[in-house]
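FW: tagging you since you asked about this chain on Friday. Here's the raw sequence from the shared folder, copied in full. Didn't touch anything.
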Amino acid sequence: QVQLVESGGGLVQPGGSLRLSCAASGFTFSSVSMSWYRQAPGKEREWVAFISYSGSFTNYADSVKGRFIISRDNVKSTLYLQMNSLKAEDTAVYFCNRGVYWGQGTQVTVSS
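HL: got it, structure written out here
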């Protein structure tokens, strides 16, 4: 069955960096596009970034453009989100997504 397992979240100071990972299994990872979403407390889940199956095309929400980088390793079946220049408003649970499938999420807290 499809499994998406996120990791790498934690507490970081404003201006800091984190790299999230999403280990995928149960499907041909190299054949599908993937996305990251996030959900802040009291808010709806929002799309963050998209990457095509080959990694040749990426797209970002305006709120993270220039600070976050989505990437993938199709050999390791792993999706990544490099988050730089983090702000308090980036605090959220981050989820990887493939269509109707979601991981359990990883908490990112940006606070001094």
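FW: The mean pLDDT is 97.
HL: agreed, and The radius of gyration is 13 Å.
FW: great, closing this out.
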